[in-house]
Amino acid sequence: MHRFTVLFVAIVAFATSSSPALAERPVADFAHLPMIEAPSISPNGKLVVAMASIAGKQELVIIKADGGGLQARLPVKDVDVRYVRWVNDEWLIATVGVEIPATGGMGLGTRLIAFRTDGSDAHFLIDRRDGGAGFSMADVLWVARDGSPRILLASQTSFYLSDEGFWPNVSMVDVATNTFSKLVWPREGVQDWYADRDGNVRLGIGIEKDGLRYRALYRASNKDNFDEFANVRRTEELIVPDVILADGSAIAFSTRSGTNAAYKLDLKTMQVGEKLFDAGAYDMSNLYLDKEQTRVLGYGFTDTRYRTVWIDEGRKKIQAQLEANFPGKLVRIVSLSRDEKVLLFKVESPSAPGAYYVFEAGQPLTRLALENPTLGTRALAPVKTVAYKARDGMDLTAVLTLPAGVDAKNLPVIVMPHGGPAARDDESWDWWAQFLADRGYAVIQPNFRGSSGFGTAFQQAGAGQWGYRMQDDVDDALAYLGKEGIGDVKRACVVGGSYGGYVAMRAAERNPDLYRCAISYAGVADLPEMIKYDRNFVGGLGTTEYWRSRAEDLSDVSPINHASRTSIPILVIHGKKDRRVPFAQSKTYVDRLKKAGKAHEFFIQPEGDHFFSREEDRLTFLTQMEAFLDKHNPAN
């Protein structure tokens, strides 16, 4: 038996409560922010950086991995933390998203913040000698492996295309002193730079002046000059290196065989060689390397759930040891120390929140934190993947969550399409689905055409199909439940967020006969208006071409233009601080519903964003949803 050391959070006892069919759990149990998210262990294995829940809000923190608890809360205000990376044992960097005033509107930009791990220092990394700034100032190409606080940073120094500084330069940066030493000057058209493990800027990718072909600049080391060549038309797939190994060879992901797979890449010619790894019918998503970047240890992909395939025998052995302690659970190695002797791993299940642990050979396992301290790791509603056919014969899958302790027959239904739409659902913990199953609903999450992870053809099948065949695929998931006798198709509601919110709005006017009600969280109601929004945010989250490719007639598939046809009650929830889908999308849509005299409820989250980064917003969302469903599609 292992001794478990508990730190950072007070862990509740593992209670053996009755099933959800007999007693509903409090709403707050499901609304908890994850106690930690995206943790990463320091090079020496002594500290962990993570986003953590403190007083109902997410903060960036440093935790002691040896059981000592919280070391520091790192100051991050009014920015979106996107990625955190260790530089050495004393310093780390965070990529953050910020709003930037620019000519013609606001810009969504990226910046780097450097933090000392004891919390005593935090500063933006900016080369003050340039006297300017651009949208992208956080492209980290390389981090020193000798323990020094050095990185290679590619960054713009101007917002304006006419300026040389619009094209990124590359500097060696000392993150402790904010000292910049320029290594590569801007090259017109070159937008992306790539470095090897030793800090050599080897490759630059850009566009030729005629705009018809990509250009590439290559050199063997920082001492050499760049050779320029261009051999890829912009209409073709551009293959760029994902990994440059210690021997100078490169590996790149490509979809040329129909799914995302790993190939050899010749950096001198940008020619793709032999396929190294693939995941069969599914897209590969990750490559795992040793710390010296000499070889590939394994890769990851998702079929019904995330899988790691280890090639390295040593890593296979460690994985087997960890799994032996948690039979029936998915064990995933998340981060390792520099010497790979200290491992941070997650134990998870589709039916239960996860938990993070630290492992070191010869030492007892240390439980770092439970994802949800109230629910612990107990199994709740069962989850499985089901297969069904769309009305046009396309093979589809969906994730089905069923209430525990009851027969899966003739149940009330929640159809819950995912956001994206270039995303997917799998067998992993989902606090929306588990909450709804706890209330007695069968929850089906369809992976409609256009979802990612199933290969190029499947994703491209969604091109131009917003509101049409993609919508049919969602409706056909409900038909599947009826055919199997699992769900009562006359007691169904459609619920979704972001693109899923769009689907809910569209369902309310396109085919309201299928659903009793609809719930939209942060949904897109007006596609042409999204084009205008992205124009205001130079360098923003989408492009005119992206939105115009969603459907042949964007106005026709925009729910805002068909509010008068809506004939089922709809609940609309949106946060005022949403930067992904503007609050005005829901506000204007609700105004149209009101003018047309349609049944609706509108709940505004004044501090809410797109990602539920505040526990209060999670709680009010679930509470409003439950009350609405009790009125319009009760489970009992």
Describe the structure.
By secondary structure, the chain is of the alpha+beta class. Helices cover 17% and strands 37% of the residues. The protein is built from 10 helices and 37 strands. The chain has an 8-stranded mixed beta sheet, sandwiched between helices. A hairpin with a 5-residue loop joins strand 2 (36-41) and strand 3 (47-54). Residues 1-22 and 536-542 have low confidence and may be disordered.
List the helices and strands and how they pair.
Elements: E1 5-6, H1 27-31, E2 36-41, E3 47-54, E4 57-64, E5 69-74, E6 80-86, E7 91-102, E8 105-116, E9 122-124, E10 139-143, E11 150-155, E12 169-174, E13 179-184, E14 190-195, E15 201-207, E16 213-218, E17 227-233, E18 243-244, E19 250-254, E20 261-266, E21 271-277, E22 284-289, E23 296-302, E24 306-310, H2 313-325, E25 330-336, E26 342-349, E27 352-360, E28 366-370, E29 383-389, E30 395-401, E31 411-415, H3 431-438, E32 442-447, H4 456-460, H5 469-483, E33 487-497, H6 499-510, E34 517-521, H7 527-536, E35 537-538, H8 544-548, E36 570-575, H9 583-596, E37 600-605, H10 615-632
Parallel strand pairs: 1-28, 8-35, 31-32, 31-33, 33-34, 34-36, 36-37
Antiparallel strand pairs: 2-3, 3-4, 4-5, 6-7, 7-8, 8-9, 10-11, 11-12, 12-13, 14-15, 15-16, 16-17, 18-19, 19-20, 20-21, 22-23, 23-24, 25-26, 26-27, 27-28, 29-30, 30-32
